[in-house]
């Protein structure tokens, strides 16, 4: 499947300053997967430029961000992305929301780098021949002109993630959503990718387990068992989450689990 083609009660943190139509709004969203409620009555306005999402495995992070590009629709409530209802206007979402998956192999579909980017350009409306030419120019702008004919399988994990980001950005989305993009990257590659992300003009919504990834972020949201547990400045939320996780890991039933 090509994901580019679909590419308080508010619960919000600081700076809810976006005008109507330029924010993402979850309104009393409930979502079930596999017969279980995985998001329960979640309301959020996401307007800040840099937003992090943290929480334990299974807390609902991936489910929540899949609501933003229409890969999932709520069972109850509404999700609006810059005024578009994700249930009714799904076809228009790829122009708004670019999505980067944890595993680049789930995203990349073409054998060479230039073909992969060319396809995104075609999705953005370029005729095929123009798309292939423009793909080379795009790579050159990112300092990767030498990648054009490279087979995708010959790229490292970090290079594949960068390719995914470049391919999604040519669609010029207003929002970039990243689902654990660092999980298989070494620290140097991660820092480089973080720097690439930090320089983007887009709104960024990042899911990560690496708690030091949110330096400079405007807001971090901690999801716990399908609900917002804490929402605010990164330092406050990350510290509370860290303390909670250390406590939970030290609890007798947690030790017995191993
Ligand atoms: N395709 C699916 N079918 C059924 N249940 C699912 C599916 N995907 C996720 N779930 C369930 O939904 C819940 C939330 O999963 P989700 O992937 O959103 O969590 P997460 O916070 O992103 O976790 P992780 O940190 O492990 O990636 C989990 O209990 C999971 O088992």
TrEMBL record:
Residues 24-250 form the ABC transporter domain. Keywords: ATP-binding, Nucleotide-binding, Transport. The keyword Transport applies. InterPro entries: AAA+_ATPase (IPR003593), ABC_transporter-like_ATP-bd (IPR003439), ABC_transpr_CbiO/EcfA_su (IPR015856), ECF_ABC_transporter_ATP-bd (IPR050095), P-loop_NTPase (IPR027417). CDD domains: ABC_cobalt_CbiO_domain1. Pfam families: ABC_tran (PF00005). GO terms for molecular function: ATP binding. Belongs to the ABC transporter superfamily. This is Energy-coupling factor ABC transporter ATP-binding protein. It comes from Ancylobacter oerskovii.
């Amino acid at each position: 499947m090509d994901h580019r083609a679909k590419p308080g009660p508010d619960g919000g943190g600081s700076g809810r300053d976006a005008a109507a139509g330029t924010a993402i709004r979850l309104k009393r969203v409930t979502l079930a997967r596999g017969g279980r409620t995985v998001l329960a009555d979640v309301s959020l306005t996401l307007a800040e430029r840099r937003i992090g999402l943290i929480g334990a495995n299974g807390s609902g992070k991936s489910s929540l961000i899949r609501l933003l590009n229409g890969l999932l629709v709520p069972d109850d409530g509404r999700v609006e992305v810059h005024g578009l209802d994700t249930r009714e206007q799904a076809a228009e979402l790829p122009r708004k929301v670019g999505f980067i998956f944890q595993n680049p192999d789930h995203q990349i579909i073409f054998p060479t780098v230039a073909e992969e980017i060319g396809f995104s350009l075609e999705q953005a409306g370029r005729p095929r021949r123009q798309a292939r030419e423009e793909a080379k120019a795009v790579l050159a702008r990112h300092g990767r002109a030498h990648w054009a004919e490279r087979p995708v399988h010959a790229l490292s994990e970090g290079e594949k993630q960068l390719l995914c980001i470049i391919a999604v950005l040519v669609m010029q989305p207003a929002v970039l959503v990243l689902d654990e993009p660092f999980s298989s990257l070494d620290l140097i590659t991660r820092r480089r990718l973080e720097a690439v992300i930090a320089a983007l003009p887009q709104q960024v919504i990042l899911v990560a387990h690496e708690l030091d990834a949110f330096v400079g972020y405007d807001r971090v949201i901690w999801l716990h068992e399908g609900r917002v547990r804490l929402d605010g400045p990164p330092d406050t939320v990350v510290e509370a989450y860290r303390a909670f996780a250390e406590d939970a890991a030290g609890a007798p039933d947690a030790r017995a689990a191993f």
